[in-house]
Amino acid sequence: KLNYDRFDIVRLTDLIVKSVQPIAMQKDVKINFYHDIKKKTMSIDEEKVERILMNLLSNALKFTPENKQINVKLFTNK
């Protein structure tokens, strides 16, 4: 079951990216977060979105060689 609530997806993504920065630094991997909006409130299941993004970042960190980078991009559909 999904538990929808209103969250700022930009802030949530930024917090998740920042939470994995220490692990990335240990592996000498740089994580960049690019976005073209400052705030975007959406109805999402915060826990599910966090779990999905953490899983993607975890896999990216696992398979990204040292001295490389991971780019997370969040852009509006214009």
Account of the protein in words:
The protein has 78 residues and is of the alpha+beta class. It has helices at 9-19, 21-26, 46-63; strands at residues 5-8, 30-35, 41-44, 69-74. It has a two-stranded antiparallel ribbon with strand order 1-3. It is globular. The model has no long low-confidence stretch (mean pLDDT 96).
The major sheet is characterized as: 2 strands, antiparallel
- Total strands: 4
Shape: globular
Radius of gyration, in angstroms, nearest whole number: 13 Å
Q: How many DSSP helices? A: 3
Could you name the ranges where pLDDT drops below 50 across 5 or more consecutive residues? none
- Percent helix range: 40-55%
Please outline the helices and strands:
Blueprint: E1 5-8, H1 9-19, H2 21-26, E2 30-35, E3 41-44, H3 46-63, E4 69-74
Parallel strand pairs: 2-4
Antiparallel strand pairs: 1-3
Helix pairs in contact: 1-3
Primary descriptors:
two-stranded parallel sheet, about 45% helix, about 25% strand, about 80 residues
What is the compact description of this entry?
By secondary structure, the chain is an alpha+beta fold.
